[in-house]
Amino acid sequence: MALNPVKRAKLQAFHMRNQRRILQIKWDDFVTNEEVTKITGLSDVRTTVGQRRIRLFGHVISSYHLDLLWRPPPSVAQGRRTK
Protein backbone atom coordinates (compact mmCIF):
# COMPACT_ATOMS: atom_id res chain seq x y z
CA MET A 1 0.00 0.00 0.00
CA ALA A 2 1.58 3.23 -1.14
CA LEU A 3 1.30 6.38 0.91
CA ASN A 4 -0.06 8.99 -1.49
CA PRO A 5 0.65 12.70 -0.88
CA VAL A 6 -2.76 13.40 0.70
CA LYS A 7 -2.48 10.55 3.20
CA ARG A 8 1.14 11.46 3.92
CA ALA A 9 0.16 15.08 4.68
CA LYS A 10 -2.68 13.97 6.95
CA LEU A 11 -0.42 11.56 8.79
CA GLN A 12 2.25 14.25 9.20
CA ALA A 13 -0.34 16.73 10.52
CA PHE A 14 -1.62 14.12 13.00
CA HIS A 15 1.95 13.43 14.15
CA MET A 16 2.75 17.12 14.64
CA ARG A 17 -0.56 17.81 16.38
CA ASN A 18 0.08 15.07 18.90
CA GLN A 19 3.67 16.19 19.49
CA ARG A 20 2.41 19.69 20.18
CA ARG A 21 -0.26 18.30 22.52
CA ILE A 22 2.36 16.31 24.46
CA LEU A 23 4.61 19.38 24.73
CA GLN A 24 1.59 21.52 25.70
CA ILE A 25 2.22 24.01 22.91
CA LYS A 26 -0.89 26.08 22.27
CA TRP A 27 -2.07 27.03 18.80
CA ASP A 28 -1.28 30.71 19.34
CA ASP A 29 2.33 30.05 20.40
CA PHE A 30 4.54 30.63 17.40
CA VAL A 31 6.56 27.41 17.26
CA THR A 32 7.48 25.96 13.89
CA ASN A 33 7.29 22.29 13.03
CA GLU A 34 11.09 22.16 12.75
CA GLU A 35 11.44 23.49 16.31
CA VAL A 36 8.95 20.91 17.59
CA THR A 37 10.89 18.17 15.80
CA LYS A 38 14.16 19.37 17.34
CA ILE A 39 12.62 19.46 20.82
CA THR A 40 11.15 15.96 20.61
CA GLY A 41 14.05 14.43 18.70
CA LEU A 42 11.63 12.29 16.69
CA SER A 43 12.17 11.70 13.00
CA ASP A 44 9.74 12.57 10.25
CA VAL A 45 6.74 10.27 9.80
CA ARG A 46 7.80 9.50 6.25
CA THR A 47 11.17 8.12 7.37
CA THR A 48 9.58 6.17 10.23
CA VAL A 49 7.05 4.55 7.89
CA GLY A 50 9.82 3.73 5.41
CA GLN A 51 12.02 2.13 8.08
CA ARG A 52 9.13 0.05 9.42
CA ARG A 53 8.23 -1.12 5.90
CA ILE A 54 11.80 -2.23 5.29
CA ARG A 55 11.91 -4.03 8.66
CA LEU A 56 8.60 -5.78 7.93
CA PHE A 57 9.82 -6.75 4.47
CA GLY A 58 12.90 -8.33 6.03
CA HIS A 59 10.76 -10.37 8.41
CA VAL A 60 8.46 -11.51 5.62
CA ILE A 61 11.35 -12.53 3.38
CA SER A 62 13.17 -14.40 6.14
CA SER A 63 10.04 -16.27 7.23
CA TYR A 64 9.26 -17.13 3.61
CA HIS A 65 12.80 -18.41 3.14
CA LEU A 66 12.56 -20.51 6.33
CA ASP A 67 9.23 -21.97 5.18
CA LEU A 68 10.88 -23.14 1.97
CA LEU A 69 13.69 -24.82 3.91
CA TRP A 70 11.46 -26.53 6.48
CA ARG A 71 11.07 -30.29 6.16
CA PRO A 72 9.09 -32.54 8.53
CA PRO A 73 11.26 -34.59 10.86
CA PRO A 74 11.80 -38.19 9.69
CA SER A 75 10.21 -39.60 12.86
CA VAL A 76 6.80 -38.16 11.89
CA ALA A 77 4.66 -40.89 10.37
CA GLN A 78 3.60 -40.37 6.79
CA GLY A 79 0.23 -41.38 5.34
CA ARG A 80 -3.09 -42.19 6.98
CA ARG A 81 -3.52 -43.23 10.57
CA THR A 82 -4.57 -46.82 11.17
CA LYS A 83 -7.42 -47.69 13.48
Q: How would you sum up this structure, described in words?
A:
The chain is an all-alpha fold. The protein has a domain at 11-56. Helices cover 61% and strands 0% of the residues. It contains 3 helices and no strands. It is rod-shaped, with a radius of gyration of 24 Å. It starts with a helix and ends in a 14-residue tail after the last helix.
Please supply descriptive tags for the structure shown above:
single chain, 83 residues, rod-shaped, 3 helices, mainly alpha
What is the averaged pLDDT score?
Answer: 83
Distance between the termini: 50 Å
Order of helices and strands: HHH
Silhouette: rod-shaped
Counting helices, strands and paired strands, the structural category is: mainly alpha
User: Biggest sheet: strands, sense, closure?
Assistant: none
Instruction: Write down the Rg.
Output: 24 Å
Q: What count of helical segments does DSSP give?
A: 3
In the predicted model, the low-confidence regions spanning at least 5 consecutive residues are none
Chart the SSEs and their pairings.
Elements: H1 5-22, H2 33-40, H3 45-69
Compact description:
The protein has 83 residues and is mainly alpha-helical. It contains three helices and no strands.
